[in-house]
Amino acid sequence: MGATPKDGPSAGVSLFAALISSALSRPLAANLAMTGEITTLGEVISIGGVREKLTACKNHNISRVILPISNKKNVKKLPPEFKFGFTIYYVSNIKQLYEICFPTDEEHLADTNHPSFMQKLKDLGVEIE
Asked: Which domain holds residue 86?
């Protein structure tokens, strides 16, 4: 009765990352938040409440966020100062999500802003803002 109303689920990408982490016995990349749903075909689809989710990230000093590419329009509507301090990765499928969550090169584990890591993500179709 007193719960906050929701438009629908948005934890599919988080559950995917947690299951893969458990299966591989590998931790996820640090300082990373994510939201989005996954279809049975592995597509990452849009969610609601982008502003509130980014506010929560800001409140907890999380600077790297994964969002569905279809939510880019919601982020564009936010004031520029609101987006300051974030690196936002826009993904459309679980392959892109996997590459962000589980970097393979040792140098990328330590520096996720490394130019070669960013280029690898862009080559996969990840949009970075």
From this structure: 12-128
Cβ atoms of residues 17 and 41 within 8 Å: no
Half-sphere exposure of 19 (CA within 13 A, CB side): 8
pLDDT, tens digit only, all 129 positions of the chain: 455 555 556 789 999 999 999 999 999 888 899 999 999 999 999 998 899 999 999 999 999 999 999 999 999 999 988 888 889 999 999 999 999 999 876 655 556 677 888 888 999 999 999
- Report if residue 39 sits inside a domain: yes
pTM for the whole structure: 0.86
Active site residues per annotation: 10, 53
CA distance 82 to 116: 27
Provide the CATH number for the domain around residue 69: 3.30.230.10
Q: How many CB atoms lie within 10 A of CB 79?
A: 7
